[in-house]
Amino acid sequence: MEEEKAIDPMEPLRRDPAEVRGIITRVLKLEAERLYLERPHINDDILRIIKEVVNDSPRTSA
């Protein structure tokens, strides 16, 4: 049998742009803070995080 390569679960995060890593980091922190709640209602907060990152990112002209 061939040896399977060890899959690094963090590899996709390392190759993503800094903005994507920032969104993921902030969302994970938010989820951890509200983990104890029965109904955390974080959809609006996740949307706010994404909008902040998109609005703060430098625009590229085509």
What is the makeup of the main sheet?
none
In terms of DSSP E residues, the strand content is under 5%
Overall form: flat
Instruction: Provide the succession of SSEs.
Output: HHH
Distance between the termini: 49 Å
Helix count from the secondary structure assignment = 3
Q: How many β strands by DSSP?
A: 0
**Mean pLDDT reading:** 84
Structural class category:
mainly alpha
Helix-residue proportion: 55-70%
Low-confidence stretches: none
Please compute the radius of gyration using only Cα atoms: 16 Å
In short:
This protein is an all-alpha fold and 62 residues long. The protein has three helices and no strands. The chain has a domain of 39 residues.
Descriptive overview:
This protein is an all-alpha fold. The protein has a domain at 17-55. 56% of the residues lie in helices and 0% in strands. α2 (18-33) runs antiparallel to α3. The radius of gyration is 16 Å and the shape is flat. 0% of the residues are buried.
Output the keywords.
3 helices, flat, mainly alpha, 62 residues
Give the secondary structure arrangement, pairings included:
Elements: H1 11-15, H2 18-33, H3 43-56
